[in-house]
Amino acid sequence: MQPEELLKKIQGLAPTLVEYRRDFHTHPEPAWKEFRTTSIIVEKLIELGYSVKMGSEVITKSEMMGVPSDAELRHHMKQAISQGANPELVEKMAGGLTGAVAELHCGEGPVIALRFDIDSNDIEEVKDESHRPYREGFSSKNSKAMHACGHDGHAAMGLGVAEILAGMKEELKGTIRIIFQPGEEGVRGARAMVASGVVDGVDYIIGGHIGFKAAHTGDFICGTGKFLATTKLDATFKGVPAHAGAAPQEGKNALLAAAAASLNLHAISRHGEGASRINVGVMEAGQGRNILPPNAIIKLETRGENSEIDEYMVRESMRVIEASAKMYDVEYDIKTVGGTKSGESSMPMVQLLKKLAESMPQFTNVIEYCDFGAAEDYSHFMSVVQENGGIGTYYMLGSNRTAGHHDDHFDFDESVLPTGVELNVRAVLDIIANHE
């Protein structure tokens, strides 16, 4: 396909991309609840001629983190069906096994993976005429769920890329593997997908994000590094209740154990070989002012400039939690509810995207590389691919926004959707043309 014809096809797809994005925005689904989103994506991919895997084929249940209760999952399955999801496909995702992987087999050649995340945030979207999604009738219909990070746009671009590449199948070589990832928020989904083999044999992997450090339409960041490794932990403490006035000696105070843990977690020595972080973001405890608290939970996260530093922070955190529980003679339990590896984009892939971006007139400010300075579940995919001999990068697609990411007023410039599709498609074509 000639470049002019390719561009014409992508431009013709622009209204459809907006429709996809607005449909996903209207029906947001947080981590492990993306039943309708996955169902819509899978039906479209099958229609396009892709080989599609879902459910237990792409998610290893034992590696899932931060999974909602069975009752909550069943509620969201019913909600998804009521909003147009295919009941048979939804049932295949029972237990929260959401997400999908599509493959286009085009003979001998490289295995190229493209990752698009599909989950929403746990945020109530603002209801205000100044907010375009509300004003134009595509704001969230689901309580305490909102696409406040742009993953609705990512999912739309993924479907657009899939459609363009399917129409060019006879011109392609190798295998195109498109990963629609659940549970990026809270860094919960990549590990379970990797364990199922979704990046096995991948030679090249590309992922990206609308906005973030590419703050304006026309910006493009070709590669990102210094993804912080992170681990999300929930620690529960179980004590014994007692009357605070009549028999305090009979109680075992879980609240004090949680408080001691919270204070001392923040006192963990920082690592001398790179950045480290820790934060206790939630502490809940107790039953009443005259009862010694028999129950407590703290929710915390660690971060490290690399995976080794994060592992150090996790070990120290577990030691502090155990010691605090022993100090107050209460039982404790620690659950890992999220986590991902550190990461660094491969410079050959950064340069490839830089070459492409500089040739696209939509980009007026092409930046080769920047530090990410936070955690992103994509780094787990990319790190595993690199460990197995492949290469990858993570780009940022600039977009004007009405508010920051994870804000209930968030919205982005939809004109960047076809640009993102074009960038991904051209990257695939360039890799195939130059793969040895």
From TrEMBL:
Cofactor (UniProt): Mn(2+)
Pfam families per record: M20_dimer (PF07687), Peptidase_M20 (PF01546)
Protein residues bound to Mn(2+): C149, H151, E185, H209, H406
Domain Peptidase M20 dimerisation: 235-311
Gene Ontology terms describing biological process: folic acid catabolic process
Cofactor note: The Mn(2+) ion enhances activity.
InterPro entries attached to this UniProt entry: Amidohydrolase (IPR017439), Bact_exopeptidase_dim_dom (IPR036264), Peptidase_M20 (IPR002933), Peptidase_M20/M20A_hydrolases (IPR052030), Peptidase_M20_dimer (IPR011650)
Entry GO MF terms: dipeptidase activity; metal ion binding; para-aminobenzoyl-glutamate hydrolase activity
Annotated GO CC locations: cytoplasm
Keyword annotations from UniProtKB, A to Z: Hydrolase, Manganese, Metal-binding
Protein name (Swiss-Prot/TrEMBL): Amidohydrolase
Source organism (scientific name): Mesobacillus zeae
